[in-house]
Amino acid sequence: MAFVKITEQPSLYDDLEKKSVLELLQEINAEDQRVALAVQKVIPQIEKLVSQIVPRMKQGGRIFYMGAGTSGRLGVLDASEIPPTFGMPPTLVVGLIAGGDVALRNPVENAEDDAERGWIELQERHINEKDTVIGIAASGTTPYVLGALRNARANGILTASISSNPDSPISKEAEIPIEMIVGPEFVTGSSRMKSGTGQKMILNMITTTTMIKLGRVKGNRMVNMQLSNQKLVDRGTRMVMEELNLEYDQSQRLLLMYGSVKNAVDAYRENNKG
What we know:
50% of the residues lie in helices and 9% in strands. By secondary structure, it is α/β, with parallel strands linked by helices. β4 (158-163), α6 and β5 form a beta-alpha-beta unit. α8 (230-244) packs across α9.
């Protein structure tokens, strides 16, 4: 079967510049509604991936996201949200983008075309068989990502891919391919739109589910979140109040003394046994 880049196919809409603002917004929204349904279809693959990530992370393994452009930025974004949300060290979920951190804000010429660079960057971080490498590429053809996956898999490391094209090269390199087929973009080839939205959804699903299974959530609460601003201190205080049936001021003192909702609740219960 010939490989067809759906991500590069002409938009289903035309004469965009002649449409009203309302028409443009409604049509973008209509396309966006396809994304969640496309993600729904790949839940079995996401489940397979998370089920293999969790035991690896329990043994000290890490997740590495690899991508270029929008895909790389979304990997870095998801990785950067894990420490404040779940109180995990920033070394456990790592986003690597072709061209390095400067590429987060500025395009870096030819960075994504270097097929060896990604594996070099993983080796610099002492990648091992407990780790997981997830390549993200809307087109499924990015050399930086392909090379990293190929080398990681050859070295016995769990690999997965997220792409928006069926039967893409990236899927052939990954042990667990996730192909989220969202169709042509509203603006032809602009994969920051539906493809990017779907990637964000899948990355959220992978890390949130993994963190829950690693015990970083209690009930439905982020009991290990970092207390990095007043809003989060207030949220954490109310969690402690609810859990221990204490007044606000006492709950806040406990929270600030022990640094997280979980630690505050555990310490209070330990100190007030019997």
